[in-house]
Design brief:
33% of the residues lie in helices and 14% in strands. The protein is of the alpha+beta class. The longest helix is centred in the first third of the chain and has 14 residues. Keywords: Signal. This is S9 family peptidase.
Length: 73
């Protein structure tokens, strides 16, 4: 019985996780506190975005690996 109570406690704790489970639903979002949001791409398909992930802008602008920058510099 004790194990069941502990198991149910762990399950209820995990059910309230920070990662939103429903694609496209940002109703959980709190300005400055939320880490993950759903953001649609050009076709409207939602993708989970980590707002605290590091940006790699230096790699994105490397002309040897990016055709767009290769032809527009």
């Amino acid at each position: 019985m004790k194990h069941l109570v502990v198991l149910l406690s762990v399950i209820s704790l995990c059910a309230g996780s920070a990662i939103p489970l429903v694609p496209g639903d940002n109703s959980h979002y709190v300005e400055g506190e939320s880490r993950y949001i759903w953001m649609p791409d050009g076709e409207g398909k939602p993708h989970l975005v980590d707002l605290q992930a590091e940006e790699y802008t230096a790699e994105a602008r490397d002309g040897s690996r990016n055709e767009y920058w290769l032809f527009t510099r």
